[in-house]
Amino acid sequence: MTEPLDVLVVGAGPTGLALAAQLSALGAEFRIVDRSPDRVRESRALVIQPRTLEALSGLGVTEDLVALGNPAVRLHLHAPGRVVALDLFDTGLDDTAHPFLLFLSQAETEGVLSRHLTEGDVTVERGTELLGLERTGPYVTCALRDRDGARESVTARYVVGCDGAHSTVRSRVGIPFEGHAYPQTFLLADLDADGLEPDTVHTYMAQEGMVFFFPLGSPAAWRMLAVRPPDRPDTDVDLPLLQHVADRATGERLALRDPVWATAFHIHNRGAARYRSGACFLAGDAAHIHSPAGGQGMNTGIQDALNLSWKLALVCRGAAPASLLDTYEEERAPVGRSVRRLTDRAFGAATSGNPVVRAARTRLAPRLAPLVLRPRPVRASLFRTVAELDIHYRRSSLSATGPRPPRGGPRAGDRLPDLPHGLQSRTAAAGWHLLLCGPPHLWPDARLAPVTDERAAPLFVHRLGDHGPWRGTAHGLVRPDGHLGYVARGGDLGGLRSYLDRWLPTGRSRPDLT
After folding, report:
1. Domain 180-268 indexed as CATH 3.30.70.2450
2. The pTM is what?
């Protein structure tokens, strides 16, 4: 009998590919399947946020993504009779190595992740469809059909549905997908445009709704996003229609040409009632879909994957208790709900036909934006929210603080900031990382050994002296996804030992001391 897989990953978009990459890094036995015969060639999602670039850096793909993308840093708001220029991410992002929005087509993002898996001898089984699944004892039995029509039964300890808004996994386990569809139809196109300043996000505050041009670079110079005109509900999505929309929004200032692809689509705001049913999990669009406002969708999905993957890998290898998996929904479902609320409000402001909202969009917003965004704290808060750097899990059962919290600095559940610069790269290796701040003589190997030795998963120890994220003597434990699980002030390691005994029990592995 074939040994059961640890994990079957269903869906090979950015979420599924990121999850598979982390499973591979942590040594899990898995397969990844996707019913589509090939990866996407259209751009679809096009923004990678700073936090996602940080989170992917441990896989070694961030530099490739940045090299291919366009790090835009300016926004132009176009209103009748005026243009307001705003700097993007000019403040509030001094604790990340990636203080910019990276514009890169989804096709390119998937290409980078797919090549990373191929280099690690992982095959993405495209053209393979999940037909059904059922729980059989401690495992899940899945029925698959490949591109040639051959059927196969696969047994896995866990199944993760990364298979999009029409998720088969979600449907088969009976998780409701609650929410609504927006009434508008949207136009999306990748094309070239004459008359746009390069390396800038352009937003036209039109009466009918906002029209966006994002700097893409490949497969075309620009991504255009707009509401379909109500008076042209059945017109083909072609260059004449796109030019008509651009003319109405820009006063005939732009000349569009050479569309690579164009489509019309509807937007939904929906969320899964649960992110888990027994041994089956949901991530990415299978768990939440919403408007593209703020470029949050793909990023939220990738971060779902990087939160779940290390937990699955450690549980499957016996390096963590099964209760660790309960923290996935506990941590990520609030993030999904928050993103849905945020994008819904932004979407309403951008598309509402209410006369008052229209006037605010076309007249007040361009005048007020420079005044509202002038104070540095306001800009910093806004930029950090969009960049997803302030997402935290402080209320998670996986976040704990010792008897005395550190003075200042990040708290348990926060992402580890890249301060001092380079700290994130030091803690990028797959595993847990113990940070020790204060005089080095406080942390001799003999004192650490009873706490750190023989843990069942990789545990790296870093003596940072006075160059850590906290002032004075303190210690903290960084999870494999870059968030802090435990923090404490002083040199008493009793609380840390209790935390490790609960979430990272002892085994045959030994820590690497650096």
Report:
1. yes
2. 0.92
